[in-house]
Amino acid sequence: RKEVEQDPGPFNVPEGATVAFNCTYSNSASQSFFWYRQDCRKEPKLLMSVYSSGNEDGRFTAQLNRASQYISLLIRDSKLSDSATYLCVVNTVDSSYKLIFGSGTRLLVRP
Amino acid sequence: SAVISQKPSRDICQRGTSLTIQCQVDSQVTMMFWYRQQPGQSLTLIATANQGSEATYESGFVIDKFPISRPNLTFSTLTVSNMSPEDSSIYLCSVTPGLGYEQYFGPGTRLTVT
Question: What residues contact residue B2 under an 8 Å CB cut-off, 6+ apart?
């Protein structure tokens, strides 16, 4: 089983749609969770951290379910510029500061 | 977040040669990492660059093939040695500026080996 698993997609949605991605992680001891965004031929960029209480940043909402070991990202009112690959990221539990990256979910927002 | 630059941004190299990639940060950072991202794949961690000591390599990566230096808290290099076409990839450095786990990435070096 992969340490971080994501549906690769692509998710093809119209502008204005709401879309949700889920991600599961295998190690229940993980403490830090993130969503990164990666545009084609660009480096990954931190989109948001994911907190136990859930957090929101504009049109983006991230939630963590520790009991089920999954993380979600909700994007409301999708824009064409949201088209990218979204990476689910979890820290390792060996206090090394390393991160484990999921393989990514590709989002295509069409006009 | 830190501002990170990488040189070169891209290169085309011949089989059997070596390329050194530089990563420069505009502020002192706790941790620096080197990743590889092959076409259509996610990121694979090569090693953690430790300041003043040998890098810590992940399974499948060895120092002879990927020697790393980190002479101070703002700079690191990764060398890809004795290159083969299988080394064609994007190489990314990342940093953890503070006490948290968030990593910030450089723009990457796109390497093609012919």
Answer: B25, B26, B27, B29, B95, B97, B104
